[in-house]
Amino acid sequence: LQESESEIKLDGETASDSESKSEFGGSPPVPTSDDTPEVLNRALSNLSSRWKNWWVRGILTLAMITFFFIIIYLGPMVLMTIVMCVQIKCFHEIITIGYNVYHSYDLPWFRTLSWYFLLCVNYFFYGETVTDYFFTLVQREEPLRILSKYHRFISFTLYLIGFCMFVLSLVKKHYRLQFYMFGWTHVTLLIVVTQSHLIIHNLFEGMIWFIVPISCVICNDIMAYMFGFFFGRTPLIKLSPKKTWEGFIGGFFATVLFGLLLSYVMSGYRCFTCPVEFNNDTNSFTIDCQPSELFQLQEYNIPLVLHSLVGWKTVWMYPFQIHSIALSTFASLIGPFGGFFASGFKRAFKIKDFANTIPGHGGIMDRFDCQYLMATFVNVYIASFIRGPNPSKLIQQFLTLRPDQQLHIFNMLKAHLVDKGMLGPLEDA
Which residues are paired to 358 by β-bridges? Predict the structure, then answer.
């Protein structure tokens, strides 16, 4: 009975949802140190803390935007590598919070199992991507063909090994805490790995589907901060006391306008609009195609109500610009809720930032909390309104069938075309 009471007490401290000290084992939250580079501290020493923070955030924001342009210039392979690195860093930041908050220092295998599950999930998702987009290369190499054929079975086996290791690691007086951390790890995998996988899928649809959504989130974050800094008076939400309605509304209009302009510029370049494909002859990525209708200028009639305001009856636009309105609207109105969610998470565990990786900005997860929500929306949007059946993928699957199965499908397709009147007697013969 005494052991049960002590176990309940130990686990009850970690299970509490209150803001009391017992949730953290009675220890106060770790104070956040000033991670601003010394050179900036000296240069901005005469400014107030408000303006010092403004300049630090501004300088580091420009540096990050410059880095973003550089990796875009380096091509899709570098972009995918960066997405992978960001995913690993975000996972590390969230797992470290759980490790510190719940004082799980003595839990056996906790960190090892967390990273093992990350490896398993990445093996599953990236294996699926390789099979989809590098089909010819996979079929050409015997080891890859075998791994592709049994990919899901191998992935499931690897996960089962981790699951069994977790069960074997359970120890008395730590059961509930260990299951907390097991759930913590899996929710983190769901949020981080799944979303980063969707980002890479968006990239393969064309770099414009990668750059525009990310840029809209960045623009909204910057403009909401700027409008809030100079004009903010009305608090928006209690989770983020510094967020204001002025910043929220100003960021919305600025982001929609930015999305229209950026889409117009990028829609004229094939390197941004064409799908990213792997060339098996050169073993490299290629971005070359005949632009689809989305990226060809079309004339649109302006509503009569707006004639007197703009003075035009028609306007030439790329159809993608219309889609960019949906993307920028989501980035402005729904995207910030990813940030609010992250703010609530940090308040729940009494931490200021996920980490101190970027001075004035916090951790990598602090910068990508809205990006992950945006990635899911873009992937769903493409699947719902843009992407149609892909003939190349159908042909790839067709070529993996046995010869008799291929002949059967050929005869069925020929009979269907004859019935539709699309195949004449000479062609049928």
Answer: 362
pTM check: above 0.90: no
d(CA 196, CA 70): 20
Tell me the two tokens of residue 364.
């990598």
277: CB partners within 8 A, 6+ apart: 133, 204, 285, 286, 287
- 27 pLDDT band, cuts 50/70/90, is very low
The backbone torsions φ and ψ at residue 155, rounded to the nearest 5 degrees and listed phi first, read -60, -45
Residues 103-129 have pLDDT tens digits of 766 677 878 899 999 999 999 998 888
**DSSP strand pairing (284-286 vs 240-244):** unpaired
Provide the 8-state DSSP code for 287: -
Query: Running DSSP on this structure, what letter comes out for residue 386?
Result: I
Report how far residue 394's alpha carbon sits from residue 345's, in angstroms, rounded to the nearest whole number: 43
More confident residue, 14 or 136: 136
- Identify the weakest region by mean pLDDT among 269-283, 375-389, 398-412: 269-283
For the chain, give the number of residues. 429
Question: Exposure pattern of 330-355 as b/e (b: 16+ CB <10 Å)?
Answer: bbbeebbebbbebbebbeeeebebbb
- State the average pLDDT for the chain: 82
Pull the structure tokens for residue 172.
Answer: 């008395």
In whole angstroms, give the CA distance from residue 372 to residue 376: 7
Contact 56, 49 (CB under 8 A): no
Residue 33: CB partners within 8 Å, gap ≥ 6?
356
Both tokens of 363, joined, read 């951790």
CA distance 267 to 243: 33
